[in-house]
């Protein structure tokens, strides 16, 4: 993976020009655009594969190792295919006290795969504080919507709905 | 906070602070931990993340000391010694129970996930974590959850990773990225799942990667080559060595035991290698164990005992038709011994077989005292010519330090270079244009002292000559530091750079001389076409590596390797340094039946010495057989005394070649410039591991790319290229693209250049083949 990989086929030209605009906006510090590029690519593809990692490194003028350092540091950047849906259940202290461990166990039982792994259609991930402590336990759905408080019933229905889709 | 730096800062020694009542002197700018380490060598304060070259981080929280404020208002407080600036009359406590308890707690925390595998860990016995844990007094801990486990990576033939041992001090990544400029190694993850490694398995790309084994305070990164021939560090006999693999002359610490050289580590020299050693210096020593290393004297391709070969050789020398060839990679005494023998026989002697190389050596000797490598970082303006990072891989450390201090670095190059990241001005040029570009750079206004760092393998003598002639017009303190791969060029060539190579060739090409006795230099590896066209010359070789002509030579005499004998070496700045004998080669065998193979000494085996004679001993034996022993000794003593006004001992910082001895080389006129055209030209392609001796180091050499001709992308669609030598022979090489190299340049390995009789910058007429 340390050698450059062609991304010409997997990234549409319009997206590529948008990415280049973001880099140009960063001026003399193209490396400053790295988080934005990762966010855009993940929104488009669902996760950051090796080709997209190499693309970001090339556009930002930094080594792929530097991009991977960033990706693995931030939990919101996904380096594996999570499936069509991602449910993040907050496991920080307020949510923990409000029943997050039970919700996580329930999600594991219903999805049939351990936390952080995809069952082919969706993934359930534990997450650091979502900032919704007053409505704990909180969840973050598909990187867009928050559900707080998340009840066991709401969780069951959400996952069942996703399973029906598949 | 301590400022990180490659070169130790020199400030006036001034005042003291007190640690447990003991006065500790410090220099302005030092932190408490630094001052304590400098005062006692080994600190009574445990620490991890601090490293003298990388400075303080305060991450491990291990070096806590109690500070007692003098104001009478504030209570004593625990502070990290590496983050506490040393100041006058500071009162600190380390011995009190609260501080010791803190040290124990931190040790316990760091050891929480550390496996109890010291008995099988290569670091055991030299482990900083082990030492600090014992020093802090921590012994027992309670921890119920499972220990954190990682899948370690396969990092190539030189470094072994065992990630489970990591204590997250960040030394490795700080060294690799911040100091060595490596881009293929980083830190991934967060919290207690931090991983230090590459994106995927594969050899580490930095030529300084071997330092990870020394930088890591525990056994995460260990020396894989040492592992193959492992004995506990306390069983090793260590000596003061000098790296022979390039002109920098780094100080090393070879470790040997039971007749085998097992590892080489760095030994700090403040002016040359304050902290680190490149991988060629660290792993190149393995040439001594090369499978094809010659150990048997031969005559006409048949094995013979040394005495009978010496008899035949002496008889041939007595005929008076022999010429002599020394070697810039051999130590001073070996060269002088051969030179003295040539003088008493009144025979031609040269240190180089190639007059072009000799002319360069003369220009190098003529340079005014070049600056020490570690002083590079003090320059504000630096011009780098050629591939210095490939020739002397430690130099980028100093250039990066100079860059961090704000130096303006300009780069003139043919090949891709990691230094481009540091260079404000970066020009890609064919070799023939380097001189003009250097001249342009000098034409700019430079008010501050500047340094020219020149890869002398990429340029010709005319460039060195013309630049040297200009030194007088430069700001005071400016200088030139040439780098090359020979470890003793000034020493070997001091008596033999006044047209000696040309005279040697003329003598051999005529009818008066028909035999060449060469020490550590194979003429076929220096000028292929010339040697092929003079096939009637008998060649006798004294060497410790199997060179190209070894099996076809008339006589061959294997000799002790450099680390098996004492040696004196002049480095690129003209500093004479001494290396001690690192080991006496021996074989472990069954004392009752030696033919049954190795049998460990520890299990009752015997040790049989296998020491080969040194070149000096061989020369002495020849002089005795010729009946010239006294004259030879007298001549050797004369040349030695003239050159060595004072002789350093192993471990000394070295003495310089006196300026008046260098002065005589400045009298020469300019070497003729070469004609250049606008067509294709050649430059030398080399990997950082490449050097005549280090090529025999199996593990290191396995990283070098296969022989090919390299060109800039998009220049040719052909797959192969055929190049012809002047004598009509040709070489066909696979064509490979190399990004970021000069256009219309073919970069080919030295062996191919020599075979074809080409020099860097020569024009060629390539024949492109599919």
From TrEMBL, chain A:
Its cofactor is [2Fe-2S] cluster. Binds 1 [2Fe-2S] cluster. GO terms for molecular function: 2 iron, 2 sulfur cluster binding; metal ion binding; NADH dehydrogenase activity. InterPro entries: NuoE-like, NuoE_dom, NuoE_N, Thioredoxin-like_sf. It holds the Pfam family 2Fe-2S_thioredx. Gene3D superfamilies: Glutaredoxin, NADH-quinone oxidoreductase subunit E. Keywords: 2Fe-2S, Iron, Iron-sulfur, Metal-binding. The keyword Metal-binding applies. CDD domains: TRX_Fd_NuoE. [2Fe-2S] cluster binds at residues 90, 95, 129, 133. Belongs to the complex I 24 kDa subunit family. This is NADH-quinone oxidoreductase subunit E. It comes from Igneacidithiobacillus copahuensis.
